[in-house]
Structures are given as structure tokens and as C-alpha cells.
Amino acid sequence: MNTKELIHYIAQTLVDYPEEISVNVIEGKQATVFELQVAKEDLGKIIGKQGRTASSIRTILAALSAKLKKRFVLEIIE
Amino acid sequence: MTKYLEYEGKNVDQALDKAGKDLNISLEKLNYDVVSHGSSGIFGIVGVKKAKIRIMIDKHEISKNIEDEAKEKARSLVKDAFKIKDKKKVPQVSKTPRISSKELDESVKRGKDIISKIVNYITSEAEVITESSKDRIMYKVVGGNSGLLIGKRGQTLESMQYLVEKIINKNSDQRIRVMVDVEGYMDTRKANLKKMASRMADKAKKINKPVTIGQMNAYDRRIIHLHLKDNQAVRTQSVGEGYYRKLIIFPRKRRKSGQYN
Prior knowledge:
heterodimer, A: 78 residues, GMP Synthetase, Chain A, domain 3, 3-stranded mixed beta sheet, 26% strand, B: 261 residues, alpha+beta, 8 helices, 9 strands, 22% strand
């Protein structure tokens, strides 16, 4: 199991249309960017009120990156 | 034997009409006093007062009427009461299954799956223990790298708690509270918050000015409010919205505190 799967899993549990989720990984030298794409109707659910859900996911990613000594960036794509 | 009855209406005429209808007496025969004329207030909104009249009646004349009336009224009252009860019962019945233990168990299990998955990504050899009551679930994470799991100022912990609560309550309108604790961090934090609250209350009392504590989430504020509730020297209040909401501790006026002593 890797980070991509974790993001996919968390997104899956939050949205109404889990089959429309896709996570795109772009590996860089310093940071790894995860592009999360969900159905248009689910965008709000992923972002949350005042971006709270999005920042929660990012915080968990930050905890992960501390362990793996890597930088993770989560982008939510419209 | 005379009896007095009071009737109300928008104005005196209306009250009279009502009385006449109720008692089956023609208006000319009514013997009445005007208690208050009433007023329509300003634009009929502010200061509306009803007119009140008092009617004197010879009991023998209409006692029968009144008795019948009373019986009728009692009957309709009972009917109404039952109607209300019936109405009240319906939503209650539909409410109870929402907190059914089966659903709760399912939520607990779903939450545990998510929590243990996230926890096991972040660290290894951690175990999740669950405790649940009626509308509350508590997840305790034991073992593993607790520092990572808690995060800076409990950030990671809070995020996990928020996400799990959101996921569990996604498909229901009933809200189940979720708490996540790593190695007793929450208790330590609670104790720290209480200590700080007491310190701030003392400060407010000493300088006799309000003291502000900002940057807290709702749960933290709640702890402080509850902690300082019984402190007679201060009063607490939260002001502001969302991110900028802060808690203010006001010192109580001397005079007032004197009353308590």
C-alpha cells in the first residue's frame, strides 16, 4: 500500500461517486505531487467548509511525509 | 347568586359579541363592566392590548348553558391533548431507530477501519481500541510513533478525528461524535487547558480587565467555559466567527462578587 492508495481510499469514503475518483502522481526531485480528481458534485465534499476537509487530508499527508522523509503536495483538480 | 366571567377581544364590541355567543344571551341583556378598552398599538405590532370585559350573570338563569359549554370545552380539550400527543409520538418513533445499536456498531466498525488504515500508514505497530456509548465513539490509538500521530499541537490527531467524524456521519442526519486519542494526549491537553484557564482567570481578576484567548477550536473553548463556569470571580464568553472566534474572560464587578460572599 502506498500514499496514492491512501489518498484514493480517503477520497472514496468521503464522496458520493467513488468510481469517478482518480489520483495522478507526479514524482519530482524534491516533492511528489498528487493530483486528486473527483466528480463535480463531490468537489465540495472533498474541500469542505472553509477548506477544512482538504486541509485535514493535507495534514495527514504531512505526517506521512515526515516518516518517509519526502515532501507531498495534494492538489485538488476541478 | 351572581357570577363573573371575563372575555377578551380586539375591542370592547368584539369581546361583547364573543360573550353573547358563548353564553347564548342577547347583547342587550348582558350586564357588564369594561376592565380595559385595549389598544391596537403602533401599526398593530407594538403594544397591542386586548380589550377585557367582565360580565355579571345570574347563575340560575344560565347555569345550564354554562355547564353544557364547560362539558363541551372539556371534551374538545381532551381531544386536542390527544391529537398533540399523537403528533408528538410520530417523530419520536422515527427518531429512535436512528440511534439503533446496529447502526452504531456499523459506524464504529467503519470508523475503526479508516482510523487503523490511516494510522498504519503513518506508523507501524499501532493498535486501535474503540469505546462507544449512545452517540459518541472514542478511538484510542496505542503504540507506534505517537509523536507523528499527534502532530504539531495535535494537528494530525484533530485531522483524523474530523475526517472520521465526517465519514461516519456522511449518510445520516444523526450526528455521532467521534473522539480520537493517542496515548492519553487528549487528557494531558485538557489538563493543560484547564491550568491555562485558571491562570488567565486569575490574571483577569488581578488587572480587573478582560483577558482574551484566541486560536482555539470549539472543543477547547468548551473545556475552558466549563472549567470557569463555577468560578465566581469571572465570566466567560466567545466572540467572533469561524477562524477568528476567541474566548474572553471578564472579571466580575466587585459589587457583584461581594454579593456572593
